[in-house]
Amino acid sequence: MKKTLPILLAIIMYSIACKKQATQVTQDNKIIGTWVGKYSGIDVRGYTYDQCWEIKDNGKILVYDQVLSPVGLSSSDADEGDTATGTYTLSGKNINATYTFTHNNQPRKQLSLQATISDDFKRIEGTKKRLNQEAPLDSIWMQKK
Fold first, then answer.
1. In this predicted model, what pLDDT tens digit does every residue of 73-91 receive, in sequence order?
2. Is residue 140 part of a domain?
3. Domain that holds residue 93
4. Is there a domain that residue 16 lies in?
C-alpha cells in the first residue's frame, strides 16, 4: 500500500497536468484558421473586393483574391486569381503582416497590413498599403469562418 499510493498520486498529477495543457487556448492560436472578408480602395465607397486569409500557426499567412480562394469568392477585381504568401506577428489584439502577391508565378506587389482583432477574436479591421509607402491603400475587414 505504501508503494501504491505515491504511484497513484503521480499518475493523477500527470493526468491533471496533461489535461490542462491540452485544453489551454492562447491568443496566438485563436487567430489560426480561415478568415473571409472584403476590402476597398481609398477612392471606393464601401467594401467591394473579396479576400480570404489562411492564417497558419507558424507565423505564415496565405492571402487569396477572388477565384483562387478556397471558399469560392466571386466578385470581380483587377487582381482576380492572385495569391500571396507572407508572415505575420501578433501582439495582443494587433496583427501586422507583410505579404507578396504573385501572378503567373511572378512577384507582383508587396503589401503590409496593420489591423486590430475584436475582443472575441472573430473580426479583424484595419488597413493595408504597398510596402514602403506611407499612405494606406485599402481598408479591410475580415471575419473568422
1. 444 444 445 788 999 999 9
2. yes
3. 28-144
4. no
